[in-house]
Amino acid sequence: MMRFYYYWIAVLVFILDFATKRLIETKLEIMEQISVIGNFFLITSHRNRGAAFGILQEQRVFFIIITIVIVSGLIWYIQAMRKTAKPWLLIGLGLVLGGAIGNFLDRLRFGEVTDFLQFNFGSYSFPIFNVADSGIVCGVALILIDTLLSAKDEKERSQNGEDKDQNNHEQQPV
């Protein structure tokens, strides 16, 4: 497998995020829309000064500090786990890292993040998001899958270990 693939994944997410945001910023006015699939999927130029789903508006310094801490923690964890972790985990961490850096750069430079992917389900409109957000969500999903699979493996190992211990105790002469 390619060495440091998890960092290449982060770079890919960052580049896709950067390129798509700049395209939207230069080609569409704010709140201008392009229908991709009827009213279900729209490209909508939107700016977000908050976090996911528009919460914590106007908290730029807070987001910058938190993102520096998170990115530092992600890099430390990737380095600590790179030789022993399963690919699910490292790919997930790479996706989160690329997304976090993508949104961080926008907040640092502009004080806001460009969102543009809008999905509507009947009368409900899912909050508008971007490629970085997608990387973060998909990455977290892979991290959760890895956590669940690791917990299952650990449980099976501990049960097998307990069975062996019980068998050893039963087979020993008294």
Describe this structure in words.
With 174 residues, the chain is of the alpha+beta class. It has one domain (8-157). It has 4 helices and 4 strands. The chain has helices at 5-27, 60-81, 87-110, 131-171; strands spanning 33-37, 41-48, 113-121, 124-125. It has a 4-stranded antiparallel β-sheet with strand order 1-2-3-4. Helix 1 runs parallel beside helix 3 (87-110), helix 2 runs antiparallel to helix 3 (87-110) and helix 3 (87-110) runs antiparallel to helix 4. The chain is globular. The N and C termini lie far apart (52 Å). The mean pLDDT is 89. Its main location: membrane. This protein specifically catalyzes the removal of signal peptides from prolipoproteins. Pfam families: Peptidase_A8. Belongs to the peptidase A8 family. Residues 155-168 have a biased composition (Basic and acidic residues).
